[in-house]
Amino acid sequence: MLKECFDNVRKLVPLVHNITNYVTVNDVANIILACGASPIMSDEPDDVTDITSICSSLNINIGTLHKSSIEAMYLAGKRANELGHPILLDPVGAGASALRTNTAVGLMEQLQLTVIRGNISEIKTLANGNGTTKGVDADVADKVTDDTLDEAILFVKKFAAQSKAIIAVTGAIDLVSDGTRCYVIRNGRPEMGQITGTGCQLSGLMTAFVAANPSNQLDAAAAAVCAMGLAGEIGYSHMKDGDGNSTYRNRIIDAIYNMDGESLEKGAKYEVR
Amino acid sequence: MLKECFDNVRKLVPLVHNITNYVTVNDVANIILACGASPIMSDEPDDVTDITSICSSLNINIGTLHKSSIEAMYLAGKRANELGHPILLDPVGAGASALRTNTAVGLMEQLQLTVIRGNISEIKTLANGNGTTKGVDADVADKVTDDTLDEAILFVKKFAAQSKAIIAVTGAIDLVSDGTRCYVIRNGRPEMGQITGTGCQLSGLMTAFVAANPSNQLDAAAAAVCAMGLAGEIGYSHMKDGDGNSTYRNRIIDAIYNMDGESLEKGAKYEVR
Amino acid sequence: MLKECFDNVRKLVPLVHNITNYVTVNDVANIILACGASPIMSDEPDDVTDITSICSSLNINIGTLHKSSIEAMYLAGKRANELGHPILLDPVGAGASALRTNTAVGLMEQLQLTVIRGNISEIKTLANGNGTTKGVDADVADKVTDDTLDEAILFVKKFAAQSKAIIAVTGAIDLVSDGTRCYVIRNGRPEMGQITGTGCQLSGLMTAFVAANPSNQLDAAAAAVCAMGLAGEIGYSHMKDGDGNSTYRNRIIDAIYNMDGESLEKGAKYEVR
Predict the structure, then answer these.
(1) C208 vs B175: CA distance, rounded Å
(2) Alpha-carbon distance B93 to B65, whole Å?
(3) Which residues bind ATP (chains A, B, C) (predicted)?
(4) Are residues A45 and B65 in contact, defined by beta-carbon separation less than 8 angstroms?
(5) How far is Cα B24 from Cα B91, in angstroms, rounded to an integer?
(6) Are B19 and B76 in contact (CB under 8 A)?
């Protein structure tokens, strides 16, 4: 199943419209190219409706918001919804500032999102809502570990059901659920957290995977998580004396470039709960 | 001739003002440094007139337009024209949105451009104009191949003559013409298309080459195309097991860093038609 | 002393708010992670007060100014001052345009800065002021060399005393002074100047070092300069045939990633005057 999800990306070459932060945008573009898809970036309100219209998916990342890019997110999102394109929201820093929280919650309320991907803290913030929204019970631990796994799965399933989106919580253990099934994924390495933007890269990758697998979106989202984690493992295995986080960044993107459905299937470590 | 064009860049160290997209801007800066020139980035209307004034050339790239950066492009362009600085336009995505097409066409109409560099689709869009402009016949194939070469050369020559700019169409075969002569260049590798921004990088490089060779602008533009393609070949020859598009990106810039006029002359594959 | 300064960064993991340019922002984020600190980027006026409030330090870099980011610099700076957070100003291109000079001088006048780090030309511009400011005597040579060292030290000490900030002038020889003592640092390699953003990276690193060493800010700032220069030396020693400035960029960040207080202490080349 994961194999087919990746193969479809390389076969269909989905065009991903990214409204993303300027910190990690280059790596996001390169990892989307590495997986066989094609990126285009545009965050100007006067440009995004046209750009979204020629794409097949939309990746919204709130890592460095500007007034105009927020406007662009709503415009592009509405157009993507009209066209039935999948939309991924990466709520970077939700909970860290009112603007980020309110923007993420507002996008959730006004758009039909296909996937929301973040760390546990960001996802909890969205589940709690911003006062005008009644949130689900987000009384879940701040780290997904084997000890807290059961309650975390329950939380992610509940929030997926309520939000009608696939929820992907990434960390040491990753959870991806559509409200019914929940992938529990154990690929990756802790050193990935010492590179800026591995989360943003995963969001770009996941958007491409979901776009190329319209009838298997949960599996596609989980396949992207496995692919990113596996790339982290493969990239790490190529590290040499003197290498550090900057070289590791390149090696992870390189590993996606050299990965295919078969090697993904073989390296993926997951169970479905 | 190509040798001299590159040597002049290293000798004269032209300062290139770049108004470019935030996706590939870092690689553009590093490749400009790699060839021996010096980059400065500024896209704020209140800043660009001063910055252009201390530079010797202007590289305009419309990859991620904002209302304010469009204003900056016109302001910087007018100042560059007053000062006689060469201006390169990279019409990224012209044809993909009204804003991109109109901005590129507007810049063509209001500025005296020295070079326009894009892929065949972008250049055809500009040749067709945007309704208010009467374009040249752009009934040319969508790929420049040996089969379509003759008509493509004719098209590029015509559009160069009409626009009074050097036209550089890059792809599997690259064409660079001033309306009279046309360089047909066969350096490069298809894998360069799997890196974000090799086109943007070439535009930065080309601006530096043209700035350093005011009396040989066509040859300088062609030299930059050969240098970029040759760097793609050299970079690829250094690729090792496990390397992918992210490492390849670094190796291409590295190859420019290590290239000089002599090695360019030796590795360039072109004919003049 | 330098050892302790670096060890404190890895121990305390300061969160650095960066309002910086879009050219080198990714490398700034990665080098802050490499040294053991944590970066967050935000330049939207509606976001920065919240973001600064959860951080422990602020890095302001004027490399690509926008009207809104200038507003954000003042807002974040005022909040950082209220909270007693250290602020570093990197006046990129001060002297090259009125907007850059006026912004840097305005920030100096309205904020209590902890460190100002730039090249000799930028620092001289700030010392001269912008007309409304009475500057110190900036009749210092344009390069800090052994021949001009005495007058340069005097200038840096004077400007530090007048501005009540630590002044760091970086170049072939680096000077860091609080007005009383002056570190004279001889780490680094000339090839670092052929990479975009080594100065911006140093500013990010230095902000983290100063944040983690509130009672030793001068030593911390000097430690960051030594660390960056030493990383340049270590990175260069790993360069192989065919490597150039793009790979060198990665190797420098990697070297910070692998450095610790002990190796810094051992490799640092400085005297205090």
Answers:
(1) 49
(2) 10
(3) 117, 170
(4) no
(5) 14
(6) yes
Task: Say how far residue C126 (Cα) sits from the centre of its chain.
Answer: 15
- pLDDT for the residue numbered C133: 47
Q: Is the Cβ pair B51, C96 closer than 8 Å? A: yes
d(CA B235, CA C242): 8
- Find, among C59, C26, C24, C28, the residue nearest to C43 by Cα: C59
Q: In terms of DSSP bridges, do strands B166-169 and B174-177 run parallel, antiparallel, or are they unpaired?
A: antiparallel
Select from A146, A87, A74 the least CA-distant residue to A117.
A87
Assigned architecture for domain C2-272? 3-Layer(aba) Sandwich (3.40)
Residue matched to tokens 């007060």: C49
- Ramachandran angles phi, psi of B108, nearest 5°: -60, -40
ipTM entry: 0.95
Give pLDDT tens digits for B135-191: 555 567 778 999 999 999 999 999 999 999 999 999 999 999 999 999 999 999 999
Instruction: Give the residue from chain B lying closest to A44, CA to CA.
Output: B66
Close Cβ partners of B46 (under 8 Å, ≥ 6 residues apart)? C65, C67, C99
Q: How many whole angstroms separate alpha carbon C267 and alpha carbon C230?
A: 6
How close, in Å, is residue C250 to chain B by CA atoms? 9
For chain C, what percent of residues have pLDDT higher than 90?
94
Mutation target to probe the B interface, by most B beta carbons within 10 A, among A9, A10, A18, A25 is A25
- pLDDT in single tens digits along all 273 residues of chain B: 899 999 999 999 999 999 999 999 999 999 999 999 999 999 999 999 999 999 999 999 999 999 999 999 999 999 999 999 999 999 999 999 999 999 999 999 999 999 999 999 999 999 987 555 455 555 677 789 999 999 999 999 999 999 999 999 999 999 999 999 999 999 999 999 999 999 999 999 999 999 999 999 999 999 999 999 999 999 999 999 999 999 999 999 999 999 999 999 999 999 999
C partners (3+ CB pairs within 8 A) are A, B
B228 to chain A, closest Cα gap in Å: 19
Q: Which DSSP helix (H) or strand (E) runs through A151?
A: helix A149-163
The CB density around residue A196, as the number of other CB atoms within 10 Å, is 28
DSSP, collapsed to helix, strand or coil, labels residue B118 as strand
Which among A210, A266, A207 has a CA at the least distance from the CA of A234?
Answer: A266
> What is the reported pTM?
0.96
